[in-house]
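Need tokens for this chain, all 536 residues.
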Amino acid sequence: MPSPPRLAQVVYQQPSSAFNEPAYKTPYFSPGLDGGRSGSDELPNKGSADLMDALAALHEAQPAYRAAEQFYNGDAGDLHTNPRVAELLAKAGATEVEDFNYAKVPVDSVSDNLQIRAVTASSGQDATDEESDDATDQIAQHAQELIDELRKVNQLDAEEQVLAQNVSKHGDAYLFVWPASEQVEPDTDLTDELDLPNEYPTRVVGVDMWVNDALTVRAFYSTENPLLCTHVIKSWEWTAPGEDKARQRATLYYADRIERWVSQIDRDLEKPESWTPYLVEDGEEWPAPNPTGRIPFFHFRNRRPYGLPEHISAYGPQRLINKLIIAHAGTIDFQSFPQRYLLLSPKAEDVLMNLVDPDFPEDDQDDPEGGGRSQFRADPSAVWKIPGGVQAGQFSPADPGVFMTPLDRYIRSMAELTKTPLDEFVGYGQALSGEARKVGRKPLTDKLRNREKAYGAAWQDAYEFALELLGLGDVTVNIEWAPLESASGLEDWNTISLKVQTGVPVSQALQEAGYERDVVEGWLNDETGADLMRRV
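Here are the structure tokens for all 536 residues:
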């Protein structure tokens, strides 16, 4: 019987920096930064065409991702309005009101419902006899142990939700999968036992699986084969040890190599001359070889080649909602303290009654044709004193319905445009149950099923790659999602009963009703299983 694959594989003739972001041992070396050269004499003296094109594409995509972030966080702001109106609203403090953020609901309604229930492994080998069957079971069991360890070490129970929210918010997200290695002493027993060279031996002891957002990472695909990722760039701001000003770092990942670049301080990042190779150690190989043989980024996206934010159709309604809320906020004080007027007879001894108003005292030297403030103040509780009759009253403040009715319509429009059930917006829509709820939620359910297919394939590929790095190939990983809905009403159970009566197995009927497979199997395999089948 063949023994299970080793937990860790040994990779030789590679510097440790080929596997991980290297720790600093000496200040970095780069031509043009300190006047010296390091490493190969053939180091490029400017950024490559791939680097400049990738940076341009990343920077071009970033404003859309930032806009998606702003709308999700409630920082979108108001539509541009008349300058005079804007001045009045600012004076009333209405612009200080935080956004009524409904645009985040379409994002959360997707990410919160995408729950990975289990990640399981099965051997891809065909068992032809009892001994092979035992070996296949051992491989599958070992793979499952490794998956459980990967999930624990990389905190994937939490990171899965971070990734789901990022891809729902931006339309794109990335998972970085890379071998965690340690250097092997040249004279270790392992080296002697395997009779392998002692030059830069490193051993894979685990796999890092890190979530990256689309603001720093972008993947590129072949025009001929849209499924083939040609390279990936990751770029971020970075401050070198001992320096005060930040530089820009950029790393290009190919299947066969990794190119690390760094910008020069106070240089135009759009010019190739501003970029030089990034080296950590004197004599380091550049570009670094990619020992994994494939690009270590996995692209999660809700469309191809690049996704769209789940709430992109909510941008317009959200801006109009913000405008309504700010305008309504400016009228609330007038509803609490109405603005009044007082018409006075011109025969009165003191028509304007200036002495009564401390803000506008009598001034014998005042020039009636000169400048200055008007006594008619557009403020809550102000009184307008106008000669010309004897009458008092108050101005009617704006009707709240003028604002609330359009607000409801815009929220409904947001639900329609983003295929989000209206009851997801708290306080809106009627809570439904049974078949009516299924029909009402069908657009969202269909969207979620499509997302499960797209994201599940990326998760499966990432886990299988991680197992290969740990020396375990020919393993199939299955991603099981939590049910999107489950039977709850009489109509649901009538449907299950009809399915069973027409020949559908009880297990299948219950799973289609939204119950998890292992839970159903547990029900049917215990001593009450026969009774359960009879009652169904």
